[in-house]
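Quarterly update from the structural biology core.
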Amino acid sequence: MISSVQVYVIFIYANNVYRTMSDVISVRVKRQLKEKAEELGIDIRQVVEKALGEEIKKREEEEIRKSAEIIVENMKEVKIQEWIKLVRETRDER
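Predicted structure, tokenized:
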């Protein structure tokens, strides 16, 4: 049987784990949007979380694309034979 102290400890642990996994943010939206979302049973938190995740992914992909463009631009000056030589030297170092 679980004692009340054990239940309390489990509750504190679970509560702290939950808090470390998420943060509270506050956003102002048009009242009509909020009311319509509630009327339609839309989980606003889920929609915001999904949209934020998609925007983060989009921006990270853009950063990677820009970095790749810079690398390609810098690599134009490297001759293919020099590149092959450097790759082989790096392999041999392992």
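Residues 87 and 93 are 10 Å apart (CA to CA).
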